[in-house]
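TL;DR need structure tokens for one chain.
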Amino acid sequence: MKRFLLALVLSTAPLPAITADLIMVEQNGCHWCARWNADIAHIYPKTDDGKRAPLRRVDLRDLPDDITFASQPVFTPTFVLVENGAELGRIEGYAGDEFFWFLLSKLLNEHAVPPAPDS
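>> reply
TL;DR here they are.
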């Protein structure tokens, strides 16, 4: 009986939510970064996906020490989904807003990043 009660309590305990960030690796003079900025940057934080994975920008030539990339980013922009400093997945390049949103949603869902609390 004790095992049953313990299992019941554990099964109803809330699981910790995955907190993820979307790292945008960019560099000065990047045409596709400028296109992403014009198309997406102003609305990204207002979207459900933007709330699920807030954006953090880093420079390709000055990558932060607090992120472990699966491999060194080469192209800009590269969007890296990170949890607890470790890469979960990435989107390399920017081919337009519709393709970006599709790939981002797929990436977030593949890694079970939960919806934003106020969604």
